[in-house]
Amino acid sequence: MTTGENSVQSKKSIPDLAPVEAVLFDVDGTLCDSDPLHHYAFREMLQEIGFNNGVPIDEEFFVKNIAGKHNHDIAMLLFPDDIPKGTKFVEDKEAMFRRLASENLPPVKGLYKLTKWIEDRGLKRAAVTNAPKPNAELMISKLGLKDFFDVVILGSDCEHAKPYPDPYLKALEALNVSKDHTFVCEDSVSGIRAGVAAGMPVVGLTTRNPENLLMEADPTILIKDYEDPKLWAALEELDKRGGSFKTAA
């Protein structure tokens, strides 16, 4: 499947997807509140090497330049004159992140309520992430979701990572489902843009990123977490309109 194929913006609402076939999740910030750990690791390690004249990076810099982006793009942004150094730096940073995440990785509030809703309806599901494979495996395992996902799609396994639609298009292909009956959960501008470009409605989470910034990426709805009444009103309406393919199977 090529990048351009099916990559048209969707103006569908969640209930318009009935009967729903699948739900696609980002991992960092969408399944778990991991951004503070990433921010901490980047801040500490960049300060150590004197980046920004030794001034620690703030939340604004992290959100604008790092959150949701693929490591190759981060390396190029932080070390434009020395990509090998940037690549080594982000690899070391990820090792630090994994040490931190293995000790404390809180799920986004209401996550297991939504995963149960998905399981009860027999929907297909995929994790779609720009994170390196060891990170993705650690987070999914720590959250107890190893057996929940049918497939895990990595940005590094695609021709282009998010914000391009490739990872989401690959997930649709792997699950053998239609974009017209699938929605995405994302927390970053990069990820929301990828889901929208792949032609699916995106549920945007304001886990850490500012609402005004996320709105620029055109999510279908924005929610605080998975207990947000806006989400459940949409899912209730979806059920009323025909629910899932499970009943038709």
Automatic annotation (TrEMBL):
Keyword Flavoprotein belongs to the record: no
GO terms assigned for molecular function: catalytic activity; metal ion binding
UniProt keyword annotation of Metal-binding present: yes
CDD domains, sorted: HAD_BPGM-like (cd07505)
Keywords in alphabetical order: Magnesium, Metal-binding
Superkingdom to which the source organism belongs: Eukaryota
Pfam family, one: HAD_2
PANTHER family: 6-PHOSPHOGLUCONATE PHOSPHATASE, HALOACID DEHALOGENASE-LIKE HYDROLASE DOMAIN-CONTAINING PROTEIN SGPP
Protein name listed in UniProt: Haloacid dehalogenase-like hydrolase domain-containing protein Sgpp
